């Protein structure tokens, strides 16, 4: 019978990052995943400055910084008027396994653990998204800049990831064709090029047409209402949630993966501080208290990200009247964009450095320990 101090349900970005954080603290974690292997659920992960700070705390940022170049700016083109806005991104079932202390639900948007905690199921935003990866074996020759296109009820764009791969997306209001498209990548491609994106620039269509069909996905955009985050039970005893299981959000600010990495570091930091205080890894009421402190720190942060993401998507896609265009082009892009996206400049803290006997390595972690 295999023992673990913590059981993590789900081997997505939140689950694996949490397992890594606990490993660095010397905590035994068991990760459970129902999928038999890796599968494509998108083609890219946006990593803002807050995510890189979390990755640095996890000790793996240096391994990733050389993989892809950063995008410093992007352009948003209004298809109807032709107006172009420049936006800047610079600134910085458990089987024979037994768990003794805690269970962390990292099992995604439709989380069983979140349901057990009493959280209501996420709701549909009324929009869906198609994502894909275009491949250019000889190189695409594009600048490393984000290109985005908006028109009534639709938003699309592409992001060069390196010199041979380009991630693209298209979001739109609900369409009854979605359910048919979901499991048929060829149908997804046909509907995007012949229908949904037919009025977008030829450059965008060329990117879509170069897609590896195995990377094409269609999915409704789901989110947890912020008031459920604020008033809901995000932990109960020795059970809590992280990542999409805690705070599913629309992708309009690119913060889903980033916030999952934050969760891993914050949870690890609180568990590490507990190890230091108690000179050992503890369970029972003390672990319940640790998870309560983690939830207290994450509750309002996650609620804000959910709200900002939803509003960002709503403003950019809602209608084509003069007022909504003014709201989007003047109020949002020129004024609110910087405010909303400043959430990226957030430091979730460092993991404490703990010795085998539970004492802090003060030379590597100068924070005062009470």
From TrEMBL:
<dbReference type="InterPro" id="IPR044560">
    <property type="entry name" value="MOase"/>
</dbReference>
<dbReference type="InterPro" id="IPR036188">
    <property type="entry name" value="FAD/NAD-bd_sf"/>
</dbReference>
<keyword id="KW-0560">Oxidoreductase</keyword>
<keyword id="KW-0503">Monooxygenase</keyword>
<comment type="similarity">
    <text>Belongs to the 3-hydroxybenzoate 6-hydroxylase family.</text>
</comment>
<dbReference type="Pfam" id="PF01494">
    <property type="entry name" value="FAD_binding_3"/>
</dbReference>
<protein>
    <submittedName>
        <fullName>FAD-dependent urate hydroxylase</fullName>
    </submittedName>
</protein>
<dbReference type="GO" id="GO:0004497">
    <property type="term" value="F:monooxygenase activity"/>
</dbReference>
<dbReference type="InterPro" id="IPR002938">
    <property type="entry name" value="FAD-bd"/>
</dbReference>
<feature type="domain" description="FAD-binding">
    <location>
        <begin position="103"/>
        <end position="306"/>
    </location>
</feature>
<dbReference type="GO" id="GO:0071949">
    <property type="term" value="F:FAD binding"/>
</dbReference>
<feature type="domain" description="FAD-binding">
    <location>
        <begin position="3"/>
        <end position="66"/>
    </location>
</feature>
């Amino acid at each position: 019978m295999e023992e673990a101090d913590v059981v993590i349900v789900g081997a997505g970005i939140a689950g694996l990052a949490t397992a890594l954080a606990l490993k660095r603290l010397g905590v035994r974690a068991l990760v459970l995943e129902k999928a038999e292997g890796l599968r494509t659920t998108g083609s890219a992960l946006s990593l803002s400055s807050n995510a890189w700070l979390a990755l640095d705390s996890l000790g793996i940022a240096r391994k990733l910084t050389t993989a892809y170049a950063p995008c410093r700016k992007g352009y948003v083109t209004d298809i109807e008027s032709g107006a172009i806005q420049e936006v800047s991104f610079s600134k910085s079932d458990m089987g024979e396994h037994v768990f003794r202390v805690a269970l962390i639900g990292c099992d995604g948007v439709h989380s069983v653990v979140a349901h057990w905690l009493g959280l209501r199921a996420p709701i549909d935003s009324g929009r869906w998204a198609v994502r894909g990866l275009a491949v250019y074996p000889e190189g695409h020759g594009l600048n490393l800049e984000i290109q985005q296109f908006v028109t009534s009820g639709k938003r699309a764009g592409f992001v060069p990831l390196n010199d041979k791969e380009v991630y693209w997306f298209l979001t739109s209001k609900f369409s009854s064709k979605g359910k048919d498209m979901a499991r048929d990548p060829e149908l997804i491609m046909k509907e995007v090029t012949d229908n949904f994106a037919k009025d977008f620039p030829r450059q965008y269509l060329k990117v879509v047409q170069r897609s590896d069909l195995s990377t094409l996905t269609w999915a409704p955009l789901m989110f947890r209402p912020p008031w459920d985050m604020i008033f809901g039970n995000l932990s109960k005893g020795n059970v809590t949630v992280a990542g999409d299981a805690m705070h599913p959000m629309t992708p309009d600010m690119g913060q889903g993966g980033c916030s999952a990495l934050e969760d891993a570091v914050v949870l690890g930091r609180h568990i590490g501080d507990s190890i230091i205080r108690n000179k050992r890894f503890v369970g029972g009421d003390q672990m319940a208290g640790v998870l309560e402190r983690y939830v207290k720190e994450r509750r309002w942060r996650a609620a804000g990200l959910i709200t900002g993401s939803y509003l960002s998507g709503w403003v950019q896609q809602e209608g084509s009247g003069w007022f909504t265009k003014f709201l989007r082009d003047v109020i949002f892009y020129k004024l609110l964009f910087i405010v909303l996206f400043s959430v990226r400049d957030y430091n979730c803290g460092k993991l404490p450095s703990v010795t085998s006997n539970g004492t802090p390595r003060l030379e590597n972690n100068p924070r005062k320990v009470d």
